[in-house]
């Protein structure tokens, strides 16, 4: 039940779930769930229990309980995303999953790999590095904004393939622009042309209703720490049956020469990459359970709520800026981007650079929201997230602050 302290002090509005259920600073309007997630306190407590168990008796935990707990997490996550557990392995995050695939597949100098200009920069860097190492060529498929239909996305990607195309890397939900790509349609069309697919699904688990068996991607990697609500450090990779004997993790450990008839080569290689803290991955079942119980209707209701709220939020902000969103409603999940006026600040491509206006918004208004650069400086967007702890009044305050910054 929402308590008075969870209500907005100006409008009296209440989020779908009390903000006190999360560890976030209650004084922040946190509209950036998409970057690093925000686990519920209940989930963080579940992780603390696992960590306490691990620290009380590390030998018992790692040598006698770890494998069973890992397999339990694998089964529950596989059921949640509709995947075959035999092809599902855990990685630190989706970037690690992309790197594992690109470091394992055999690219030749005559091969071509495709990527869209909306691709997450880290994954695109990994693709460029793989091409440099093997001599393959990278071709960038431009998808201009606004995106008016799913058909445009399918036609742009599929139409760019040639006889040389070996692999297509694309986001299921784009990071800078928040566009949901029709992954099943794209995979089906590319598969018919003999082209393999690597789907970077950092944002999809928990945001979208997934059935990875029917989607049929060659490789599909995602995060559990964003919309699924697990702690950070919990990612996964799903490998199609025909490729499971070829994919290796970035770190080779004891599984390389282990003799274990009951575990597949894929699981042997990925299930132990050296001593680490596995509590984030082992907390995934608790995160799934939290979503089922958080509000009436469970995960389907969460997805519907977040989508409706982010669409309302982008309407409010777009009206304030007198601009148009970047995509039709059918291509939106729980993220939505709106164009901002071009930056007047010098371009900064350092690793941890933050747009100065984004920083000003946080310092002066206590509103946390990213200003991703797209497609290149000085052009940029404001990217909204919607989660159960958000409410309409937060987007109204954001709209007022942006209007004062850019329209006055």
Please provide the ordered H/E string of secondary-structure elements: EHHHEHEHEHEHEHEEHHHHEHEEH
Q: Whole-Å distance between the termini?
A: 40 Å
The protein's oligomeric status is: single chain
Q: Please, what is the CATH homologous superfamily of the largest domain? A: Type I PLP-dependent aspartate aminotransferase-like (Major domain)
CATH class category of the largest domain:
Alpha Beta
Helix proportion of residues, in percent? 25-40%
**Based on the structure given, which CATH architecture of the largest domain is correct?**
3-Layer(aba) Sandwich
Structural class: alpha/beta
Name the strands of the widest sheet in spatial order. Answer: 2-8-7-6-5-3-4
Global Rg: 21 Å
The major β-sheet equals: 7 strands, mixed
Number of domains: 2
Strand content: 5-15%
Give the overall average pLDDT: 95
| CATH topology category name of the largest domain | Aspartate Aminotransferase, domain 2
Low-pLDDT ranges: 1-5
| Strand segment count | 11
Overall geometry comes to globular
- Note the total helix count: 14
